[in-house]
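Weekly puzzle thread! Below is a chain. First person to post its structure in token form gets bragging rights.
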Amino acid sequence: MALEYHWYAIYVRSRGEKMAAKLLDDQSIEVYLPLQRKLRQWSDRKKWVEVPYINSYVFVRSSEKEYFEVLNTPGVVRYVTFEGQAAIIPDWQINAMKNIIASDTPVTFSAHRFKKGEKIQVEKGPLMGCEGEVVRDTDGKKKVSIRIGQLGVSMIAQIDLTSIKKIKS
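Winning reply:
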């Protein structure tokens, strides 16, 4: 019986995506790590670096036989699961991600889905620094409606998900 290969998302140690991908590739396990070029500023210089589109995640195409080889790779924390099983990602989704990234279309990913009532802080844009509360669940949308009370009135604004972060209550 032939082995069935599927794509899986694995969670890796923070800032360990490239190393985990290299170690998996060294084991002849097919790996996909979407990277983007960003200009980083240090105190003495600027440099273009490749950083993951999705922090702490790497995609692997493997069979059941390689399940524990993947898990035992240094830097790999766990498989992303759904209902207790490693979640299979359809080939078409990985191919679509590859095509979108290869097309140089501006792409942003947000791993967090904001829920109604969560406290957030705006990190970019004209409302930078303002704190607010999520008015509606995001449910996979690109923007979130937030209530900002710091302005003395209750203002509801639509903010891009990549411009906000969750804060502790």
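Puzzle host: Confirmed. Bonus trivia for everyone else. The radius of gyration is 19 Å.
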